Amino acid sequence: MTSLDMTFVRRQFPAFAVPGLADKAFFENAGGSYACAPVIDRLTRFYRERKVQPYAPYAAATAGGAEMDEARARLAAYMGIGTHELSFGPSTTANTYVLAQAFRRALLPGEAIVVTDQDHEANSGPWRRLGEEGVEIREWKIDPATGHLDPERLNPLLADGRVRLVCFPHCSNVVAEINPVAEIVAMAHEAGAMTCVDGVSYAPHGLPDVDALGTDIYLFSAYKVFGPHQGIMAIREGLGMHLPNQGHWFNGETLYKRFTPGGPDHAQIAASAGIADYFDALHDHHFGAEPDARKRGVRVHDLMRAQEVAVCQPLLDYLNDRNDLRLIGPADAARRAPTVAVDLGRAAEPVSVALAARGINCWAGDFFAVRPLTAMGVDLEKGVLRLSMVHYTSAEDVARLIAALDEVL
Ligand SMILES: Cc1ncc(COP(=O)(O)O)c(C=O)c1O
């Protein structure tokens, strides 16, 4: 099996050559990844050469508009959805907020929404607030010992057929266990409900094939996927055209404008085409040319995942063997994203400070995952230490982290 060429990979990220970062091991990727060179280049070019109202009939505006269209088309192709089914918003939190406003008007009396206590607040709070307007909110709870979200526990919540929407994460940003999205979506659809999947913690490890997962909505944040600070929303046409338009009334026939009430960030959308440039380069370097974007996506996903699993396992083994801390989520790297939260039983922030002094950049706190951490009995005052990796994290980075943890803990 082809393995990831780390020299090639790291060359695509200018941060690895920047003084002040080049000598550090980076473990705050789940907060925001480094941006890849094509994204930075496109963003810079847009601001220098195309920073005008896009789509107007002169060269700079035409090029800017075309680049925005290109970003949507190429990312949508990777995800197995239509270009019109992909839209950008300021963040995933803003995207769920807008979606919740749309569902608020679409739900009928007596209909319900399922939320989890495994989600980041972004895919939880906006839905729960609909409870104040009479929508019934049902909570699908995690196992407090493991953080596991058991699909069996969803069944009773769906039994009366009144649930219209099930909101859940592809994986949590603290538990990190990969949820069986296609299976959960099938259960929800069987019960007449739609699904909204928060993929923010999963997408950095490989863009999902949204069509294969079957979900009606899939959300993630480009700034954690080597791109600019944007939220990306995939919404299938059937649902998107059924929900009430949240944009300007005269844009209501255009699906990708229906859930973007503010003006879009032209430059960042255009720069997002750089994410596709990077994944294409990664693909072609390892496998040669392939015209089908979904096939390229699967290969790049598997390539990155294999690297991440191999690099993450020694850290999980090290943490699991210690009896002075609690590893959150599975100890098997293959079952989780390489986002590793640890309850130290003491304040975690000073430990991240001590690690920074040793060249390990990471952080501590609740990471807006207040509900799962509370459900698991973590003291929010102390918080968790989070060590998060992506495919560019090297085995040497992890060895350095383990040595630093040995000194600090
Ligand atoms: C799992 C998860 N969902 C949602 C969000 C919110 O994303 P955004 O910052 O784009 O609103 C985050 C941010 O950390 C996250 O980790």
Tell me the Rg in angstroms. Answer: 21 Å
The kinds of small molecule bound in this structure are: pyridoxal-5'-phosphate
CATH superfamily of the largest domain: Type I PLP-dependent aspartate aminotransferase-like (Major domain)
Oligomer: single chain
CATH topology of the largest domain: Aspartate Aminotransferase, domain 2
Could you say which overall geometry the principal axes of the C-alpha atoms support?
globular
- Going by helix content, strand content and strand pairing, the class is alpha/beta
CATH class of the largest domain: Alpha Beta
Low-confidence region ranges? none
| Strand order in space, largest sheet | 2-8-7-6-5-3-4
* Major beta-sheet overview: 7 strands, mixed
Q: Strand fraction band?
A: 5-15%
Distance between the termini: 37 Å
Mean pLDDT metric: 98
**String of helices and strands:** HEHHEHEHEHEHEHEEHHHHEEHEEHEH
What does this structure look like?
This protein is α/β, with parallel strands linked by helices and 409 residues long. The chain folds into two domains: 6-35 and 295-408, Aspartate Aminotransferase, domain 1 (Alpha-Beta Complex); 43-276, Aspartate Aminotransferase, domain 2 (3-Layer(aba) Sandwich). It is built from 15 helices and 13 strands. The protein has helices at 6-11, 37-49, 59-79, 92-106, 125-128, 155-158, 181-190, 210-213, 237-242, 266-271, 273-287, 293-321, 349-356, 370-375, 395-408, and strands spanning 25-26, 86-89, 112-116, 136-140, 163-169, 194-198, 217-221, 231-235, 326-327, 339-343, 360-361, 363-365, 384-388. Strand 5 (163-169), helix 7 (181-190) and strand 6 (194-198) form a beta-alpha-beta unit. Helix 3 crosses helix 11 and helix 3 crosses helix 12 (293-321). It is globular. The two termini are 37 Å apart. Bound molecules: pyridoxal-5'-phosphate.
